[in-house]
Fold this protein.
Amino acid sequence: MTETFAQLGFPGRLVAVEGLDGSGKSTQIYLLKRWLEMQGLKVFFSEWNSSSLVKSATRRGKNEDLLTPTTFSLIHATDFADRYERQLVPLLRAGYLVLCDRYIFTAFARDVVRGCPPEWVRGLYSFAALPDITFFFKASLEVSLARILDNRPTLKHHEAGMDLNLSPDPYESFRIFQGRIFEQYLALGTEYRFVVIDANQRIEEQQGVVRRIVSAEIDLSQYRVAKAS
């Protein structure tokens, strides 16, 4: 599908964030959510790989290293389809602002880097409409890695791309894996007209830009929670 929810006539609007692990995208979408809620707006938040239907299967597959690139892709597609049908579409029809921490572009970038054919991956998600705004938080690999290690001492196995045998050193593997994902995102950003945010900037500066763009692109007054009479 090549149309946004607005173009399809949905009363709600969907805003998505994309970026490398450690780019700060999750922090930014959380801050946007809190800002919109404080204005009394109808907001719903959804994050990648969070469907209760498949979450336990994904966790077990990762922990026991059972997932091939194809099964990895199919599980994430199942997760997304479940959330799309049960949460995103109904709430957008009900006139909500839906915020997504990662959307179909995560699969377009990561699954392809893991070796899945681009046309096949896109076919899995062909039912999904495009976000009304997609922010891409463009951070350098060194900044992303530093932010991850600030919060925990080691990299996660799949986060570093260790399942792909790129390097025995997890930090070098992270740089190679995330570097390849970064190249995919740059191409996707041109194709899907991402709004690029300099994620090397201070958190407050980034959030100010995000709020200004959302306010300019979406008439937020339409999404206020109706007060009981």
